[in-house]
Design brief:
Length: 370
Amino acid sequence: MSGKLQLTGRMRGALRSIVPAALRMSHASCELPALTREGLCARCYRDWPDDPGFIQQYQQLMARCTSSTVFNSLAWQSAVVNEFVPAGQFRLVTVTRDNQLLAAVPLGINTAAMLETPGRWLTDYLDPLVDPQATRQCWSMILSLLNSLWDWSLGGVQFHHVRGDSAMRRILPELAPMFEFEYSESVTSIAPFITLPKTWEEYLDSIDGHERKEIKRKIRNAQTKASLSWKTLKSEDEIIPALERALSAMRQAESPKADFTDEVLVGFLRRLVPTLAKQGDFYLHELSLENAPTAWLLCLNSSRGPMIYNTSYDFSRKQWSPGIVSFSLALQDAIAAGAPIFNLLRGAEEYKKRLGAQDLELLKIQLLPQ
């Protein structure tokens, strides 16, 4: 890479044991000095701050960042870090002014000795929280701090699932060389979304004619021949048993979805969903056909409308097209609620295009020390 010698993980480990004093950012316990400049303070923590006011400051920062989502919340981020970042490998870079939090960038050291935004397999948007009124100043402080704390055992920084319209793409290419980092970016996935009109009929008119007829036919068949019932579950008492039904159906899906559900998703959601439900950040659509629960949409709330985090359905009733019927009913609900966006999140599945979704690119931004 760039003609530089790359150390393997084993070699790095051996060198760490020989010269631990040369390590700063990657060291498990040494004190990391703060950086102060022009009224701003940048710090790197190895755990979430124990300051009683941090939670409130974090929530206030989320409120100022209009692009923030449930994925940025402390509940979600803490769950990801607790589950998937090994002990001693978590880093949190913050920028503050007086008692105001301006930026919070969670990072973890991965097995390739790269700092990265954690949880990319479970989290769709990972843009760091940075105050929109101080974006350039914050990134200048963050890069300056990283540069001052950098050590030879780290290969670089990777920011995963950055939205294509993120301010990071405008600011970091210019700032990175000033702090001895090389900037690069690449598209890694897409997150389709549907811009919603005012009425269901307007939406139907906006999609392909054949697809419009199929949606109407499938909903009608489910209503007249399969005793369609549609529920939106919001309380924790309703959500938890329905979540178990949804997870059970996911396990019946084809691999790799079934394997991922078993190995990663089940435990993660069982621990996280009760907290999200209490906070009003999670709800679940359940479709019943032939008087039995058949399909589920796991939804996250956002200021712009629903985000469909995951789906599942009972394959024994696939003749009733439970997938497209569920999405159609959820779209109707979102339109009726006045939501501007119906977010289908990561994945390039064909049905998303048939529903009229547009693609939002998600990128990996990489900073390598020069």
